[in-house]
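Quick check before the chapter quiz. The format below is the same one you will see on the exam, so make sure you can read both the input and the output lines.
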Amino acid sequence: MRFVIKRYKGSYLAYVMAFGWLYFAMAVFSSVISVYLTDLGKSASEMSFIVSASGIFSFFMVPITGYMADRTQNPKALSVVTLLLSGFMGLIFAQCRQVWALFLLNGLILSFINSLMPISERMAGRSAFRYGYLRVWGTVGYALGAQAAGFAMEYISPSFIFVMLFLSAIFAAVGFWGAEDCPSAPQDKGQETSPQKDEPTKRPSLLKVLLNPSFLLFLLIACLFTGCSNVNMTYAPMLLNSLGVPTSTVGTVLFFSTLIEAPVILFSNKFMDRFSGKALIIASFAIIIAQFLFYGFSRSAVVVILAMVLLKAIASTLFVMINLKIVRNLLDPRFTTTGLSVINSATNLSAILLQNAGGVLVDYTSIPALYLALCGLTVLGLLLTLFLKVGNQERVFG
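Here is the expected output.
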C-alpha cells in the first residue's frame, strides 16, 4: 500500500485526477445552473442575482486563498479542504428553494472552486509535465461535466447534479493530495538555480502587485473580457432553450464546444510563448466579438450552435492561459499565485455587476439584445489592449 501511495504522489495520474475532476465539478454545477434555477420558477433577474453570488464571494475568497497558498506554502491542504466543503454544500443546495439560501450556497460553492483555479494554473506551469498535457484534462473534465449535467436534467433528476458535484469534489481532492506542491519559490522549469536560493523567501505583498501600472490596465481588460465571458456562460444555455433546443442537447453542445479547446491547450507550447501577450489578447477579443455578433443577430438554432461549438471555449481558454503569461511577464515570480488571485478576484467583481445588469436587461428586452450589449463592452476591451505594454521574456508553456 505504501508503495502504491508513493508511486501515486507526483504522478501524471494525480494531475489527471486533480484537473479532470476539478473542472468536472465546476461544469456539472455551473453549466446549466441558469436552466435549473429557471425551472424552479426564478425570473431572469432572480437567476442573475443568485448566479452573481459566485462573483461576490470569489472577490474575497480567491485572493485570500491565493495569499494563504503563497504564505503557508501548503496549497494542497487548502485545495483538499475547499473541495470537500464545496461537495457537502452542493448536497444542501439541492434541498433549497429560497432565493437568499440559493444565493449564499451558490456563492460559497463556486468561490471555493474558483479559488483553486490560480493554484491549479500555477501547479500546471511549474510541474515536471508540460502545461498542455495537464490542462487538457480540465477541458475533458469540463466537457464531460456539462454533458452529464444536461443528461441529468433531462433524463434522471435535476438534484442528481449535486450528487455528481459531491463525488467529483472527492475525486478532485484525491488528485490535489497526490499532486506535487507548487511553492512560490522563484525557480521555474528550465532555469538555472539562483545563487540567492538560500536567502529567505520574501512574503508576497498585494500592494506591490497593485502598484504596477501595466498590471492595473490588464486588470481592467481582464474584467471586461472575463465578465462578459461569465455572462455568456450563464445565458448561452438559455439562448439555446429560447431557440427550441432541449436541455439534454444543450449539454451536448457545451460538451463539444469545450472539446474544441483541447487542441489549443495541447499545442499551447507552439504559440503561447512565441506570440506576445498583447497579440494573444487581441485575438481573444476578436473571437469573442464574432461569437456575440452571431448570438445577437442570428435566430437560427443551427447557426448559434455552430458558433457556440467553434468559438465559445476557445476565447475563454486562451484568456486563462494569457492571464498566466501576463502575470509571469509583469510580476516577480514569487507573486505569481497572488497575481493570478487578484485577477480572478477583480474579474469576479465585474461578473457581479454584469450578471445583475444582464438579468435586468433580459427582463426588459431579450437575450439577443444582451449579447449586442456584451459585444460593445468587448470592443472597448479590445481598444484598451492597444495601450497595454508587456514584455515577452518568460517562457511558461514550453
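If your answer matched, good. The chain is about 75% helix and 0% strand.
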